[in-house]
Amino acid sequence: PSPASPIPVALPGGTLRVADLLAAARRAVRDSDGDWQGVVEGLRPHAQALWRRLGPDERRLFLRRVARYWEIHRHRIPPASAAAIDDLRAGGRLRLLRGTLAEAEPTGGGLRVRADLDGTMTDLDVGWLVNATGPGGDVTTDPFLASLITAGTARPDPFRLGLDAGPDGAVLDAAGRPSERLFALGPLLRGTLYETTAVPEIRAQAAALAPRLLAAATSRIARSQPVA
User: Fold this and answer.
1) Pairwise CA distance, residues 37 & 108, whole Å
2) pLDDT (average), residues 15-36
3) Largest CB tally within 10 Å, which of 30, 58, 70, 188?
4) DSSP conformational letter for 56
């Protein structure tokens, strides 16, 4: 119920591997008597720097093998929400089924969903189908962003999680040139920063970008004033 206190995690210097990260996190949890929440809070402020220290192959390995575990432990459910879910399950109003969605088709009253539930194909008649699995895995599936990429105004990051951008968030065009008018914040920078979906990280990015935008706007206003 109370926030966990951050626990420092000792990490090796230099080039980092996913195996190093996992070993350090496990060691920190053991040394803190199982306080994994504190270890996650200790890692969070350094997540962007750690991501930059991973080489391209190690980043791909993290995305393939570790990312979902990090997200589950990093974005924890509030106790009040957990209690509400427990009440719904105890009252028979909510069931949790583990499986993979195969297909869905409309019916007279909603949808018929076919899912592989632990190896058994099952048809479920439902009123709604809501995708709540988090951000999509390929930035080019968004029509607006795809149009920028097609026009050469922007390009996806190497992992196609968002747009490629410079350290200040300036979007890079197809040739890798930073834009002076197009910037990215938050989840669009997942490929370059990874941990960039929560308010503390986005707030810091916005604060760093604001002076640059203000200076650019002031300069344009000055240029538009008539000369006496």
Assistant:
1) 46
2) 95
3) 188
4) H
pLDDT one-digit tens code per residue, 166-185:
988 999 999 999 998 999 99
Q: The dihedral of CA 220, 146, 138, 175: what is its sign? A: negative
Q: How many CB atoms lie within 10 A of CB 58?
A: 18
Using a 10 angstrom Cβ sphere, with 0-12 exposed, 13-18 middle and 19 or more buried, the burial of residue 202 is middle
Report whether 169 contacts 142 (CB < 8 A): no
Per-residue CA distances from 28 to 33, 37, 67, 205 (Å): 9, 11, 19, 29
Rounded-to-integer distance, Cα 133 and Cα 47, Å:
21
Beta bridge partners of 101: 115
Helices (H), ranges, 94-163: 143-150
The whole-number pLDDT of residue 80 equals 92
Cα distance between residue 62 and residue 191, in whole Å: 12
